[in-house]
Amino acid sequence: MTPIQALLLGLIQGVTEFLPISSSAHLILVPYLLGWEEHGLRFDVVTNAGTLLAAVIYFRSDLLASAREILAGGPSPVGQRFGLGWAVVLGSVPVVVAALLFYDWIATVARNPVVIATSSIVFGLLLWWADRLPAQRPLSEITWRDSLWIGAAQAVALIPGTSRSGITITAGLWRGIDRFESARFSFLLAIPVGVLALAKDVLGMLTEGLGQGELGPLLIGFVTSGVSAYLVIDWLLKWLRRQKFTPFVIYRVALGCLILAVVWAS
C-alpha cells in the first residue's frame, strides 16, 4: 500500500464511519473501482482504531458519566426509563449476537456490489421516511424498548451498504427520539462494538509481524481516520440541529443506482 492510498482510505473511513452513507460500502467499492489490491486486516484494524479513538475523545464526558452511573448500580435497567449507560450496554447486545451467528455470511456473500447497492437505496429511503416523523423525545427519556430496537437495527447494519449510523438513527427517529439525540446515541452505541471488534482483530494480528514498509501507511491511515472522524462527528451534530438528512438520502440512492448500472453494464 502506498502512502497516497493509505491517506485516501483513512480519509474515507473517517468521513464515512459516522455519516449515514456506509463506510463498509465505500471501503469495498473504492479499491475495487480503482483496481487496488485488498488493503487487508491490519489497515482495517488501525483505521477502525482511529475512528474509535475519535468517538471516545469526543464523547468522553458522556462515557465517564455513564460508567459512574453503572458502577453506582443505578438507575435500574429494568425500569421504564433508565440511564444512558445502561441504554448503550443493552443496545450493544443484538449486534454481538448477530455477528456470532452470521459472521461467515457477512464476510463473504454479503460483500457483493448488488447487496451494497440495494442496501444503500433501501435503507436510505427508510432514513428519508423516518426523518419526516414527529420525533421530539430527548435522550433522557430513552427506555429499554428503545435501546433494543436501536440495537437490533445496529445488528442489521452488519450487511455492507446499510450504514450503521444511518440505520440506528433511523430506528431512533422511528421511536420518536429527536434527530440530534438519535445521532448522539448512535455514535455512543458505536463505541462498545468498536472496542469488541478491535480486541478481536488485534488478537488475530498478534501472530503476524509487520511487513517491510507497512508501518508508514498504517500510521497515515490511523491519524487520517481519527482526525477526520472527530471533525465529522462535530460537524454532523451541529448540522442536525437545523437540517434534515435529505442530502445523505439523495447521495445514497444515487450511489446505489450507479453501482447497479456499473454491475449490469459489466
Question: Any overview of this molecule?
Answer:
74% of the residues lie in helices and 0% in strands. It has 266 residues and is mostly helical. Helix 6 runs parallel beside helix 8 and helix 6 (113-130) packs antiparallel against helix 11 (246-265). It is globular and about 50 Å long. The model has no long low-confidence stretch (mean pLDDT 85).
Quickly count the helices.
Answer: 11
Strand percentage, roughly?
under 5%
Helix content: over 70%
Could you give a short account of the major beta sheet? none
Contiguous low-pLDDT stretches (5 residues minimum) are: none
Dominant shape: globular
Number of strands: 0
Radius of gyration: 18 Å
Protein structure class: mainly alpha
SSE layout:
Blueprint: H1 3-18, H2 23-34, H3 40-58, H4 60-71, H5 84-107, H6 113-130, H7 144-156, H8 164-174, H9 179-205, H10 215-239, H11 246-265
Please name the defining characteristics of this protein:
266 residues, single chain, 11 helices, globular, mainly alpha
Summarize the structure.
The chain is mainly α and 266 residues long. The chain has 11 helices and no strands. It starts with a helix and ends with a helix.
